[in-house]
Amino acid sequence: MSMPPLDQDGYLCNLDDWSCTVAEQLAAREDLQLSEAHWEILNLLRAFYAQFQLSPANRALVRYVAQQLGPDKGNSLYLNRLFKGTPAKLAAKLAGLPKPSNCL
Amino acid sequence: MARSMLLISRQAPWAGPAAREALDLALAGGAFDLPLSLLFLDDGVLQLTSGQQPQQLQQKDLGANLQALPLFGIEQLYASQRSLTERGLQHAELGLPVQRLDDDEVRQLLASHDLLVTL
Amino acid sequence: MTTLHILSTSPFADQRLASCLRLLSPGDGLLLCGDAVYALNPDCAPRQALELMPEQIALYALQEDLDARGLHDWPARLQVVDYPAFVALTLDYARSNSWL
């Protein structure tokens, strides 16, 4: 299956192009194999975007995950480990969201 | 200790870029854990009304974005009671959990922050 | 802990001056620059409001903006400042608020 159009940073140009298969393909480009734990965060991110219409920066992501899944997962250590040290950027990319704009 | 900032957003949501700029500044400040409060004043309170359909103007949903503020650590949210009343919004349901302040309380709010930014 | 409020737009075009006047605290200063100096036009409502401010509020205006607009009839309480004095004022007050 061919990859839908991406922007220069590798984020989907159109949010509607996202699917689980696309997420797997995007993850493969990052040498990442998606596990249940990854999916849990990706689904949460898509819910965040549906509600707030923006991609969270790291702190907001950590807070949101803590709020929804508890402190065991809502902490930087856990999220950094899952998403190679840049959870807000990488997880947003795999979830098909725009690049977080308030994230350096 | 970082200096505390009060951001005063006083323009209507779709009148120009000011409301969006104030929100972006708040979100950026929150992302860096700066002690930041946000006051909606004058036409700025019009950002708080519910049921807006910005997609009609091909605009991003400012109201939805504003609701993310607490998750970005911006929990000190205020609105001028006078500005709300002037615009007939004193009983309206607002899209954000803001604390309503009378003029005296707004004066105290201004005096209790190190930096003021009005947009 | 006082504030220097800085206004730069015409008082006849928007609500900034009116809104600012309501939020002044004793010890605050109000500096007019750009088109905000039109608030000093003789016999207009904004000028009256400025003259009626409590004494503990200092009123300043930028010299070159007054001159450029041909305003020479100033209220007695007005302190006319140049740019270096403007900069010094921002240091005298605990904070400044530019009504952009």
Gist?
Chain A: Part of a sulfur-relay system. Chain A has 104 residues and is mainly alpha-helical.
Layout of helices and strands, plus pairs?
The complex is a heterotrimer of chains A (104), B (119) and C (100).
Chain A: H1 20-29, H2 36-52, H3 58-69, H4 76-82, H5 87-94
Helix pairs in contact in A: 2-3
Chain B: E1 5-9, H1 18-31, E2 36-40, H2 62-66, E3 76-80, H3 81-86, E4 99-101, H4 103-111, E5 115-118
Parallel strand pairs in B: 1-2, 1-5, 2-3, 3-4
Chain C: E1 3-7, H1 16-22, E2 29-32, H2 45-51, E3 58-62, H3 63-68, E4 78-81, H4 83-92, E5 95-98
Parallel strand pairs in C: 1-2, 1-5, 2-3, 3-4
Describe, in plain words, how this protein is organized in 3D.
The complex is a heterotrimer of chains A (104), B (119) and C (100). Chain A is 52% helix and 0% strand. Chain A is built from five helices and no strands. The longest helix of chain A is centred in the middle third of the chain and has 17 residues, at 36-52. The N and C termini of chain A lie far apart (33 Å). In chain B, strands 4-3-2-1-5 form a five-stranded parallel sheet. The mean pLDDT of chain B is 90. In chain B, helix 1 links the parallel strand 1 (5-9) and strand 2 (36-40). Chain B is globular. Chain C has a single domain (3-98), classed as DsrEFH-like (Hypothetical Protein Ychn, Chain: A, 3-Layer(aba) Sandwich), CATH 3.40.1260. Chain C contains four helices and five strands; from the N terminus they run E-H-E-H-E-H-E-H-E. Chain C has a five-stranded parallel sheet with strand order 4-3-2-1-5. Chain C is globular and about 35 Å long. The B-C interface holds B 8, 10, 18, 41-43, 82, 103, 106-107, 110-116, 118-119 and C 1-3, 15, 19, 22-25, 94-100. Chain A: It is found in: Cytoplasm. Chain A: One of its GO terms (biological process) is tRNA wobble position uridine thiolation.
